[in-house]
TrEMBL record:
<dbReference type="GO" id="GO:0051539">
    <property type="term" value="F:4 iron, 4 sulfur cluster binding"/>
</dbReference>
<feature type="domain" description="Nitrite/sulphite reductase 4Fe-4S">
    <location>
        <begin position="460"/>
        <end position="573"/>
    </location>
</feature>
<dbReference type="InterPro" id="IPR036136">
    <property type="entry name" value="Nit/Sulf_reduc_fer-like_dom_sf"/>
</dbReference>
<feature type="domain" description="Nitrite/sulphite reductase 4Fe-4S">
    <location>
        <begin position="197"/>
        <end position="355"/>
    </location>
</feature>
<keyword id="KW-0560">Oxidoreductase</keyword>
<keyword id="KW-0408">Iron</keyword>
<dbReference type="InterPro" id="IPR006067">
    <property type="entry name" value="NO2/SO3_Rdtase_4Fe4S_dom"/>
</dbReference>
<feature type="domain" description="Nitrite/Sulfite reductase ferredoxin-like">
    <location>
        <begin position="379"/>
        <end position="443"/>
    </location>
</feature>
<keyword id="KW-0349">Heme</keyword>
<dbReference type="InterPro" id="IPR051329">
    <property type="entry name" value="NIR_SIR_4Fe-4S"/>
</dbReference>
<keyword id="KW-0004">4Fe-4S</keyword>
<comment type="similarity">
    <text>Belongs to the nitrite and sulfite reductase 4Fe-4S domain family.</text>
</comment>
<dbReference type="GO" id="GO:0046872">
    <property type="term" value="F:metal ion binding"/>
</dbReference>
<dbReference type="Pfam" id="PF01077">
    <property type="entry name" value="NIR_SIR"/>
</dbReference>
<dbReference type="GO" id="GO:0020037">
    <property type="term" value="F:heme binding"/>
</dbReference>
<dbReference type="InterPro" id="IPR006066">
    <property type="entry name" value="NO2/SO3_Rdtase_FeS/sirohaem_BS"/>
</dbReference>
<comment type="pathway">
    <text>Nitrogen metabolism; nitrate reduction (assimilation).</text>
</comment>
Length: 585
């Protein structure tokens, strides 16, 4: 696995031709904050894992003080459930039989996450959420119809969510159905493999890649290649299934930074060096309950041909050297902190095919002074005569009928393709101009998934919440909609405001990148009784001037959020109270 024959043609990269856009370029070669250079004992750089019988396991000498999840991996290799067909036998057992033995109980509660299956023991005992792999968020009408057919059979327990990593999650799945579902996924070109726990998550790219008139580079080939490599073309790749913790990657292809590079473990930032196209590298961005950090420059540049070898080298460094104790300290940035950025960089370099890394270039291609474009609504593609239409999916939740209808619209008006976004919305690309009016008059767009939602609704994101997730402290999706509707009755907003909701400190809803973020917690009402509440975060930014939001107000009862959010919008975002509007008319 140390040699690579895949090559990309170097794309033609041109500055934007739009005269209305300023031509200031962002330079991301020097970290604003980076771990200091530290002395590292040579013994610390000994790989902590070794290959045995085709799988990577933690060496005995490094097992002291490891966390419970690491012990579960040692007791039984999770990937055997897929690669050695263990899922087929497990699916034949009743839940009672499964819960009677620790091994099988750990299988359904932990190891099945390597197959993208998450048991909802707390709120939906015996049912699973299944997370797919959907590189760059690109999917087809056939895939969408298949997923709809899966969730439809589960009635009120079945639904689907668009995730904050351009991905599908489907809900309501029962274990006996899993082997057949996996076969069905394969038939339509999908997989759920290696999408949970200590694995590489869905590779994120520009949602309008290949059709964006202003794109820097088409991110789809890179995202596809990384995903195929990580999963060995959906057959399972045990070289990268025993990471210390989850790991996120994105390829940036837009000036808009739709890909959110600053919150990924590895981000590729397009840049020119000596006339060659490639990428400067950011590393270490992550969210967790105890710590959130933005990615920092690795001071490295790779050509387009070396995207995959660099990904492999960073993953091997993390796999070999990462900490496996306290789960709150096992993300890759903790390793960077411990080693220092230069030692970490040298460990990555020694795992490259040529045993070295070029230094970063100052010729970044992402324009810093760039007004982020709204992809919702109707927009021209780079292909003459074609447009794409961005649809707002309220908090990313869909039912089977919604998915079937979206598939029909993609076939009728486009080319059978749909694009998912990190803001939990969906784009229909490749629509002919002559078909636009008919598409906009479709009932689904009039009644459910508007291309022109209200200003506050269009920036609304919400995690699963405690309807399905056992870790969530509060309900999020319905509440996010309800609070936003209440706020819209109180104030009028004239510019976009992004509001994100997350049910717990794991922050799957990414509240720290929102203008206003809500993190679920328990609070006390006016009678000192415990009620569902939220910590409010303020000031998150995305784009070239990215910044993580900070805590603004703690433990606000959810029932009191409306007026408080309205006040925040007036004080910080120029909103106008509606009663004042009425009085001035």
């Amino acid at each position: 696995m140390s040699s690579f024959s895949v090559r990309f043609l170097a794309p033609q990269v041109l500055p934007s031709t739009s005269s209305s856009r300023p031509k200031t370029w962002v330079v991301a070669t020097a970290p604003t904050t980076a771990p200091a250079s530290v002395e590292v004992d040579a013994g610390r750089l000994e790989p902590r894992v070794e290959e045995r019988d085709g799988y990577f396991i933690l060496k005995e000498k490094f097992r002291e003080g490891i966390n419970p999840q690491e012990k579960i991996k040692i007791e039984k290799e999770p990937m055997k459930l897929f690669m050695e067909k263990g899922i087929e036998e497990l699916a034949k057992l009743s839940m009672e039989e499964i819960d009677n033995a620790k091994t099988t109980k750990d299988d359904i509660d932990v190891r099945l996450k390597w197959l993208g299956l998450f048991h909802r023991r707390k709120h939906q005992y015996g049912r699973f959420m299944m997370r797919l792999k959907l590189p760059n968020g690109v999917t087809t009408s056939a895939q969408t119809r298949y997923l709809a057919s899966v969730i439809r059979k589960y009635g009120k327990d079945g639904c689907a969510d668009v995730t904050t990593r351009q991905n599908w999650q489907i809900r309501g799945v029962v274990l006996p159905d899993v082997p057949e579902i996996i076969k069905g996924l394969e038939e339509v070109g999908l997989t759920s493999l290696q999408s949970g726990m200590d694995n590489v998550r869905n590779p994120v790219g520009n949602p309008i890649a290949g059709i964006d008139p202003e794109e820097i580079v088409d991110t789809r080939p890179y995202c596809n290649l990384i995903s195929q490599f990580i999963t060995a073309n959906s057959r399972g790749n045990p070289f990268f299934t025993n990471l210390p913790r989850k790991w996120n990657v994105c390829i940036v292809g837009s000036h808009d930074l739709y890909e959110h590079p600053h919150i990924n473990d590895l981000a590729y930032m397009p840049a020119i060096k000596d006339g060659r196209f490639g990428f400067n590298i950011l590393v270490g961005g992550f969210f967790s309950p105890k710590r959130c950090e933005e990615a920092i420059p690795l001071d490295a540049w790779v050509s387009g041909d070396d995207v995959l070898p660099l990904c492999k080298a960073v993953l091997e460094t993390f796999r070999d050297l990462g900490f496996r104790g306290n789960r709150q300290k096992t993300r890759m940035m903790w390793l960077i902190d411990e080693l220092g950025i230069e030692v970490f960089r040298s460990e990555v370099a020694k795992r490259m095919p040529q045993k070295e890394l070029e230094r970063a270039t100052s010729e970044d291609l992402v324009q810093k002074q760039w007004e982020r474009r709204d992809y919702l609504g109707v927009h021209p593609q780079k292909q003459e005569g074609l447009i794409y239409v961005g649809l707002h999916i309220p908090v990313g939740r869909l039912q089977a009928d919604d998915m079937d209808e979206l598939a029909r619209l993609a076939d009728t008006y486009g080319t059978g393709e749909l694009r998912l976004t990190v803001e939990q919305n969906i784009i229909i690309p490749n629509v002919e101009n002559s078909k636009l009016e008919a598409l906009l008059n479709e009932p689904l767009l009039k009644d459910r998934f508007s291309p022109e939602p209200s200003i506050l609704m269009k920036g609304l994101v919400a995690c699963t919440g405690n309807q399905f997730c056992g870790q969530a402290i509060i309900e999020t999706k319905a509440r996010a909609l309800k609070v936003t509707e209440e706020v819209e009755r109180l104030v009028s907003v004239t510019k976009p405001v992004r509001m994100h909701w997350t049910g717990c400190p794991n922050t799957c809803g990414q509240v720290q990148v929102a203008d206003i973020g809500f993190m679920g917690c328990m609070a006390r009402d006016e009678n000192k009784k415990p009620v569902e509440g939220a910590d409010i975060f303020l000031g998150g930014r995305i784009g070239s001037d990215s910044h993580l939001g900070e805590l603004y107000k703690k433990a606000v009862p959810c029932k009191d959020l409306g007026p408080i959010v309205a006040d925040i919008l007036v004080e910080h975002f120029g909103a106008v109270r509606r009663e004042r509007e009425e009085g001035e008319e």
